[in-house]
Protein backbone atom coordinates (compact mmCIF):
# COMPACT_ATOMS: atom_id res chain seq x y z
CA UNK A 1 0.00 0.00 0.00
CA UNK A 2 2.84 2.40 0.84
CA UNK A 3 4.42 1.65 -2.52
CA UNK A 4 1.19 2.56 -4.31
CA UNK A 5 0.89 5.87 -2.44
CA UNK A 6 4.53 6.76 -3.12
CA UNK A 7 4.11 5.83 -6.79
CA UNK A 8 1.04 8.06 -7.14
CA UNK A 9 2.81 10.98 -5.44
CA UNK A 10 5.85 10.52 -7.70
CA UNK A 11 3.63 10.44 -10.79
CA UNK A 12 1.90 13.66 -9.72
CA UNK A 13 5.26 15.37 -9.14
CA UNK A 14 6.54 14.29 -12.55
CA UNK A 15 3.40 15.59 -14.27
CA UNK A 16 4.00 19.07 -12.84
CA UNK A 17 7.60 19.40 -14.02
CA UNK A 18 8.39 21.68 -16.94
CA UNK A 19 8.19 19.73 -20.19
CA UNK A 20 11.18 21.69 -21.59
CA UNK A 21 13.40 20.84 -18.64
CA UNK A 22 16.79 19.74 -19.91
CA UNK A 23 16.16 21.04 -23.42
CA UNK A 24 17.24 24.57 -24.31
CA UNK A 25 14.77 26.93 -25.94
CA UNK A 26 15.61 27.73 -29.57
CA UNK A 27 17.78 30.67 -30.64
CA UNK A 28 16.09 32.48 -33.49
CA UNK A 29 16.85 34.88 -36.31
CA UNK A 30 14.98 38.15 -36.75
CA UNK A 31 13.59 37.36 -40.21
CA UNK A 32 10.01 38.47 -40.85
CA UNK A 33 7.85 35.49 -41.77
CA UNK A 34 4.91 36.13 -39.41
CA UNK A 35 2.86 33.48 -37.66
CA UNK A 36 -0.53 34.06 -36.02
CA UNK A 37 -1.10 32.31 -32.70
CA UNK A 38 -3.88 32.23 -30.12
CA UNK A 39 -3.36 32.05 -26.36
CA UNK A 40 -4.79 28.82 -24.97
CA UNK A 41 -6.04 30.54 -21.80
CA UNK A 42 -7.11 34.06 -22.81
CA UNK A 43 -8.09 33.25 -26.43
CA UNK A 44 -6.31 36.46 -27.57
CA UNK A 45 -4.49 36.43 -30.89
CA UNK A 46 -0.84 37.45 -31.22
CA UNK A 47 1.38 37.86 -34.27
CA UNK A 48 4.85 36.37 -33.85
CA UNK A 49 7.77 37.50 -36.01
CA UNK A 50 8.48 33.95 -37.25
CA UNK A 51 7.87 30.27 -36.47
CA UNK A 52 11.06 29.96 -34.42
CA UNK A 53 10.17 32.93 -32.20
CA UNK A 54 6.68 31.43 -31.79
CA UNK A 55 8.26 28.19 -30.48
CA UNK A 56 10.74 30.12 -28.32
CA UNK A 57 7.90 32.15 -26.76
CA UNK A 58 6.05 28.96 -25.81
CA UNK A 59 9.28 27.48 -24.44
CA UNK A 60 10.00 30.51 -22.24
CA UNK A 61 6.34 30.99 -21.19
CA UNK A 62 4.93 27.54 -20.34
CA UNK A 63 1.97 29.11 -18.50
CA UNK A 64 1.04 31.32 -21.50
CA UNK A 65 1.22 28.81 -24.36
CA UNK A 66 -0.08 29.80 -27.79
CA UNK A 67 -1.37 27.53 -30.56
CA UNK A 68 -0.56 28.34 -34.17
CA UNK A 69 -3.63 29.54 -36.10
CA UNK A 70 -2.03 30.18 -39.50
CA UNK A 71 1.02 31.53 -41.30
CA UNK A 72 0.96 35.30 -41.72
CA UNK A 73 -0.11 38.14 -39.46
CA UNK A 74 -3.25 37.88 -37.37
CA UNK A 75 -6.17 39.56 -39.12
CA UNK A 76 -7.25 43.11 -38.38
CA UNK A 77 -10.04 43.40 -35.87
CA UNK A 78 -8.69 40.52 -33.79
CA UNK A 79 -7.17 41.49 -30.46
CA UNK A 80 -3.41 41.13 -30.65
CA UNK A 81 -1.45 40.18 -27.52
From TrEMBL:
The record, for InterPro entries, names: Kazal_dom, Kazal_dom_sf
Signal peptide range in chain numbering: 1-19
Q: Which UniProt keywords apply?
A: Signal
What region holds the Kazal-like domain?
19-76
Q: Supply the name of the protein.
A: Putative vasotab
Amino acid sequence: MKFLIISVIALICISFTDSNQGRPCPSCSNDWTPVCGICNTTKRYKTFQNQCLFRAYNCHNPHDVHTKVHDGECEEGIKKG
